[in-house]
């Protein structure tokens, strides 16, 4: 019986090995060579890694990425929480609200970029028009701050619904009796939130945080389509940065950078795996 | 209800309406733009088309490049989902029913791949697929996307399958069903929902994926995601066209949302996104 | 603690829904729960207990009627404003806090000084037997202890007027149920709590409460002490509902000197017949299984029955007996015997129905 299991798993394993394992080996190989078009690659050991880590451009991309992810988490989790708390618990409006929330989540990322391009481009967008009317300055293509904020706004627009849906599901799972008891105990809305709602949302919030942490760290299509990574490098996040290097055939550098990038994500993945399976054992949503 | 609570409820309502308004405005704007002439887009700011036109859509339907890329996308996505499900279903069954040496580690390794940034695979994929002669074909993208979709499908399917009691399998075998009969007649109907969720998520991911699709294609297999990126930084971008293309790419998602509208929240909590 | 009263309380959910045809979940309820008394609200599922519970606690405002606490009209007040505490079917505790903080929570919200809080918490903890657990995270307690914490939060405030217990033993391990129920009773007595224990389990109700109100189909059908309900039921339903197994109810015809059923007659003494103050006619006879004298020996006035089921209950046996009649539906009753009486299925035994334990009902009301 046990051997049978492997038969079931082998087709998948073969495809994954070719699709995943082999490529990683290639990357590891390249990362240790200096590759120049035309001539044979020269082995340079860990030199590429050193170069990447010392490169201010790389470090810039990393810090930009961390800042972005941090802002994303702060805004999306708190906004998501607020919206979920405001949503009706039952009645006619529940279904339409949930559908509206689902739509941004199913839009292809590239189209999200397009939507926001049309929305924020000077001369044709709504946001520049608003600024014009209010007498301010806004230019997503020329101003670094505007560009970065717009990408942030885009991500918040795109992904907050995920947090909302998760928290909403969590809230539905809290029996009314707890709120009744808190009312009898004389707790005001803040204390009820702090001692009843929040503890019971622990598992969904963790899930939401981990998912957004992982995915925001890999953001690629949206900045590419909205700002092309610019102006300059203002919105060149890690994925974009490494992709550029790969496209410009700096293969050794790009491979090393990829591995470092992968390593960062791996560490976070491992933590995520441990935490999420622990929640799963405890019985998903509390 | 106390007056304070009533006031809070009113603020909540206003907050919600504001939020949903902001949520739908950008989509509306794209829709709006897609039905305008380029001249109107560039010269005026209008909340709805003063001169309504479907010419952008017509142009797309008539363009071999656009229609070709829609076709390419559909092709490799379907191919990918097919292959993914074929290998993931047996694998998920193995994970959910049997404990075998290294199963936890294997499972974890699978998840890692899902988490990996796609950019890492740009370089090796290019090499591998060109050496296989598959560069710039739909096969390249279909196979490349397996990297992410197989772990996702196995993860989801394993979850659903574990929800079906093992006793069902055992009873069927005692009753004399062969494994194939058991699987097709008994097990499969039970996990239909799980397969649906897995298929949907894999479809969505593959439809949307940009990095690998861009890397592995140039002309012959260029998907719609890539065609949409055309014109960034270039002069004279045809905004109306872009809007129309965007709206069309939205359609698979909108269709799905319509069909699952009643199960959305339930599905999300169960679907382990 | 206080006295809680319902006057002409009725509630229909259809009114809010705007329907024409009304179904009354509770109908014209008049009841007083006295201060410091252990009360129970007992009834089968669907009788309206939950609706009553929600009206008492303030979660629901009745369509008609008024609710009074110590004479004050509180019908329109919210739960918090009424100061009625509740213990739910499952333990409701703040699992992010330790036991001390759980108990202190209501007082902290009321901005009581911390020294006063400490004194009260320690006192309540001692009564509840939780002194050793004060520093424990409340999530680590077992369900019985958690319920005690729930109760503790209810009684710790001085302005609590009453405690509602909504089937509080539901999730408690069966082995711990008896003990917890016993402890609840002791606490109620010691602190003079006005308690209303809502349940469908008569054993819980009868062992906890001094006054029990029985509900059926939205109405209160009888209020009394457990003993009163047991020995003096107002209707066949109550006779049958109380007791395990319940009272046997038989249809018969009352005559001048006996009661005749289809299968046999029961003779009366003149005194007994005089006490039954109605004319001859159709009626129902009620007698408890424990009151029937079962013997293997035929004596004067006993009636033969055939045993079809013998249930061994540990300290006694329950016999299900039939008497065949012309129609196919046999008369079926239950009797109770000592554990050492050896009986088996198919055997014939002789039953005597002692007068003093007979109950007579007519049109669903107690006559005697």
How do the strands and helices of this protein lay out in sequence?
The complex is a heterotrimer of chains A (286), B (273) and C (368).
Chain A: H1 2-31, E1 33-34, E2 42-43, H2 47-54, H3 56-86, H4 94-106, H5 109-120, H6 126-134, H7 144-172, H8 176-184, H9 189-200, H10 202-216, H11 221-226, H12 238-247, H13 251-283
Antiparallel strand pairs in A: 1-2
Helix pairs in contact in A: 1-13, 2-13, 3-7, 3-10, 4-7, 7-10, 10-13, 12-13
Chain B: H1 3-34, H2 38-43, H3 55-62, H4 64-97, H5 103-115, H6 122-131, H7 138-162, H8 166-174, H9 179-208, H10 211-215, H11 224-227, H12 239-259, H13 264-271
Helix pairs in contact in B: 1-12, 3-12, 4-7, 4-9, 5-7, 7-9, 8-9
Chain C: E1 4-11, H1 13-16, E2 26-33, E3 38-42, H2 49-57, E4 64-69, E5 72-73, H3 79-82, E6 84-87, H4 99-109, H5 114-128, H6 143-155, E7 162-166, H7 174-191, E8 195-199, H8 202-208, E9 211-216, E10 219-224, H9 226-231, H10 236-241, E11 248-254, E12 258-260, E13 265-267, H11 270-275, E14 281-287, E15 293-295, E16 303-312, E17 316-323, E18 331-338, E19 348-352, E20 359-362, E21 365-366
Parallel strand pairs in C: 3-8, 3-9, 6-7, 7-8
Antiparallel strand pairs in C: 1-2, 1-4, 4-5, 9-10, 11-12, 11-14, 12-13, 14-20, 15-19, 16-17, 16-19, 17-18, 20-21
Helix pairs in contact in C: 4-5, 4-6
What is this structure, in a nutshell?
By secondary structure, chain B is an all-alpha fold. Chain B has 13 helices and no strands.
What's the multimeric state?
Answer: heterotrimer
| Overall strand count of chain A | 2
The rough form of chain B would be described as globular
Low-confidence stretches of chain B: 231-235, 267-273
The structural class of chain A is mainly alpha
Helix percentage range of chain B: over 70%
Count every helix of chain A, treating DSSP H or I runs of 4 or more residues as helices: 13
Q: Percent of residues of chain A in helical segments? A: over 70%
- The N- and C-terminal alpha carbons of chain B lie at a distance of 38 Å
Please report the number of helical segments of chain B.
13
| Secondary-structure element pattern of chain B, one letter each | HHHHHHHHHHHHH
Outline of chain A, from the CA principal axes?
globular
Cα-based radius of gyration of chain A, to the nearest Å: 23 Å
Order of helices and strands of chain A: HEEHHHHHHHHHHHH
First-residue to last-residue Cα separation of chain A: 36 Å
